[in-house]
Design goal:
The N and C termini lie far apart (about 50 Å). The chain is mainly alpha-helical. The protein has helices spanning about 1-20, 25-45, 50-55, 70-85, 95-110.
Length: about 130
């Protein structure tokens, strides 16, 4: 019976321990992952059936958290998404999620990670084209 308990313990605990992240995500990694998610989410909304018509006039969203202009770009994009509320697609769940996640990233980068992030470039034009840097 003792061998069976030890075997069960090893088979149960070892996979849990291996799947647990050893290091908590840093502020930088959180901002980087959120920026990637938002870039993909905005691209998906532009081609989506319900939101494509309203998002057609919106600029493409390419977020590079290493660029100092990213805060201005996010602020402008948030206000543009808020203006979509006048249209029907502004009330879809996907548009709401985009707006809320953009606000969260803006707060994370502006307040929570303010000292952790280092902007390596200041090129606002680079945020207008796709960047596969990260």
């Amino acid at each position: 019976m003792s061998i069976l308990k030890k075997l069960f313990l090893v088979l149960y605990v070892v996979p849990m321990a291996l799947s647990y992240p050893f290091f908590p995500p840093t502020c930088y990694s959180k901002a980087l992952n959120m920026a990637r998610e938002l870039t993909q989410m905005a691209a998906d909304l532009k081609i989506g059936y319900e939101t494509g018509r309203c998002m057609a006039h919106m600029p493409d969203l390419y977020l590079d958290i290493h660029n100092a202009c990213v805060m201005y770009k996010m602020r402008d994009y948030i206000s543009s998404v808020e203006d979509l509320r006048r249209r029907r697609c502004g009330y879809t769940r996907e548009m709401r999620k985009l707006e809320v996640t953009l606000r969260q990233l803006f707060i994370v980068m502006g307040e929570k990670c303010h000292g952790d992030l280092v902007f390596t470039i200041y090129d606002c034009a680079a945020l207008e084209r796709p960047n596969n840097r990260y």
